[in-house]
Amino acid sequence: MRLRYKKWAKPYLHTHQEIAITNLEEQKEQIINILAQPNLFLEIGGGRGDFIVKLSQKNLDKIFVMVEKNENAAAVAARKVVEAELTNVYVIVSDVFHLIPFIKDETIAGIFLNFSDPWPKARHEKRRLTYDLALKEYRRILSNGGKVALKTDNPDFYTYSLAKFREYNWVIENNSYNYRGFAEFDAETEYEAKFRAEGKPICRLVARKGENTYAIN
Ligand SMILES: C[S@@+](CC[C@H](N)C(=O)[O-])C[C@H]1O[C@@H](n2cnc3c(N)ncnc32)[C@H](O)[C@@H]1O
Hints:
By secondary structure, the chain is α/β, with parallel strands linked by helices. It contains eight helices and eight strands, in the order αβαβαβαβαβαβαβαβ.
């Protein structure tokens, strides 16, 4: 996501520390308290927050944590959360791989990967959010029966991700190369709206943590 530098982003995030985490170490206790809540869903790479704001408004009984490494995007998301007066959403400014060690085993109900960077070059495979080690961490943090829902406009990234989930024995509950957008526990993302307006098909899968033994550890 290309975003201009926003002078207000950092101060805004700092004045809204009740919902925004900008320093994992300094706000460690707060993170632990946030993550201790039941019914918690994680969106990785939430961008400017359209998805998390819409989904959380429809599900006030659930907790949503959005992690986004771009501070400018995260500040826009935080502003939407504050303006919507939502008390069930948190924005964490971090690379997800720095946040994951703070998350205890089997504590997350679901993970959303919306239009993640596809990293098409083979030499960048490890950066994909559905690379083997990422799936291994998702399996660790998801509670029993927990799911990953992935949407993308990129068929190659989709096919790659589907194959990875299958390789590690996740149960594929939904699998569509032309998702119409009608799943109940879902909301349209900013990128999705743009691609739909361009007439681009959207791919979506939902993978449930199944029984598995890992080939790698
Ligand atoms: C293509 S944008 C999609 C934004 C949003 N999910 C949407 O669908 O409109 C991908 C976002 O993921 C973020 N991102 C990529 N890798 C990440 C990582 N490892 N940890 C946290 N955020 C990440 C990027 O900064 C960017 O904002």
